[in-house]
Amino acid sequence: MAYAAGLHVPIDGTFELTARCNLRCKMCYVRLTKPQADAVQCEKTAKEWIDMAGQALEAGTLYLLLTGGEPLLHPQFAEIYEAVAQMGFVITIYTNATLVDEKIEALFRRYPPMHVCVTLYGARPETYARVCGRADGFAQTVAGLERLRRVNTRLELRATLIRDNADELDEIRALALRYSPAFSINPEVHRAFPGVCSDVDACRLPPSRVMRLYEDNRRFMEALPPQDTEPVQRVYDLREKRTGFELEPTVLDCLAAKASYSISWDGRMVACNTFTHPFTEPFREGFHSAWERLPGLFAKMRHPEKCSTCPLGIDRACPNCPPKLFAETGSFDETSDYICGLARARREQMHRKEAKQSEAKLSEAGVEKV
Ligand code: SF4
Ligand code: SF4
Predict the structure, then answer these.
(1) Is the dihedral of CA 102, 112, 81, 14 positive or negative?
(2) Which ligand has the shortest distance to the CA of 318?
(3) Which end of the chain has fewer CB atoms within 10 angstroms, the N or the C?
């Protein structure tokens, strides 16, 4: 990835096939209703996506994520999938699994995706009713997982946690581990894109709880026998690696717009799918031009002034980045209480961990605590 970034090759792409979803999760940042999506009439056809995939392939895309909304809800999903599989992309699918029927199972068995990532929202129908607005979503998810179990793919389960389901983490994890040793949680929920039907502020968890959940889940997963788990969150010290993160546009502390991009359901190329803008227009100007112009759109973007001297940013405890700040505040250069709260909670957790580690070292060396 670093090598690709050095050459500005778009090796990693995302196609967001639709913004529609058959669930109605309270905290979703992207979902539009069908009437909303129909009103803008911008969903791209199979022919358009397949043509775009051909251009992306030529430009160097190898990894392709198909996501949504719920990507299986695109009326021509099977046609798009078969075409991109035949082109040879290494494919990942993000799905809620509820629409994985016999036909999708057969398609995936014929052309196995490298990786399928299923998000869980609960471990009971009542929880799906509360979080996703549909109790039957639970049975459909489990049925979809049973089908995915028969596909030769790396299946990963994730749980998005909010106030309504965080207490159910043990049960959700037990359900997930029946299908895959790869399980992770996402308790950090950001505000939605403009116009999206969602209730984030009322349902997301406070930063201290977010960090406790990460810690509890990490401990649980680390305590499992090695054959029952696999490391899904690999931790690197990025300062010691050649990552390509330091390349232009430096305001993005990752590989977005350097080696990766996302194309939204309505045809915008953005640096990653957390952005709504700035964007280029690959369906109008062609993939090559859209990709080449993308980094230049960040030339004037700056981090908030306050972050330049903030110890939490310097410590890398802070999860901020421009699209997250924009989602929270409506501006790329304003800080947000939620994100600063996450950074403080993470730093406190890091301190507690460091204190425990140095206590353990002292006790190993036979030094008693005074
Ligand atoms: S959310 Fe931020 S850190 Fe993540 S890929 Fe997008 S720009 Fe990079
Ligand atoms: S904690 Fe707040 S002020 Fe500090 S770096 Fe993060 S966003 Fe900026």
Answers:
(1) positive
(2) 2
(3) C
What pLDDT sits at residue 200?
86
d(CA 281, CA 269): 6
Taking the CA atoms of residue 275, residue 245, residue 344 and residue 336 in that order, the dihedral angle to the nearest 10 degrees is -30
Please choose from 190, 302, 306, 337 the residue to mutate so as to test ligand 2's pocket, defined by most ligand atoms within 8 A of CB.
306
pLDDT at 194: 66
Q: Among all ligands shown, which has an atom nearest to the Cα of 343?
A: 2
- pLDDT single digits (tens) 286-336: 999 999 999 999 999 999 999 989 999 877 789 899 999 999 999 999 999
Domains and CATH numbers, the chain: 2-238 (3.20.20.70), 302-370 (no CATH)
pLDDT bin (cut points 50, 70, 90) of residue 245 is confident
Q: Which atom of ligand 2 is nearest to the CA of 319?
A: 6
Pocket test for ligand 2, best of 324, 331, 339, 342 (most atoms within 8 A of CB): 339
Is-contact 101 114, C-beta < 8 A? no
CB–CB of 169/175 below 8 Å? no
Comparing C-alpha atoms, which of 217, 211, 191, 187 is closest to residue 202?
191
Q: 258 C-alpha vs ligand 1 centroid, how far in Å?
A: 12
pTM: 0.91
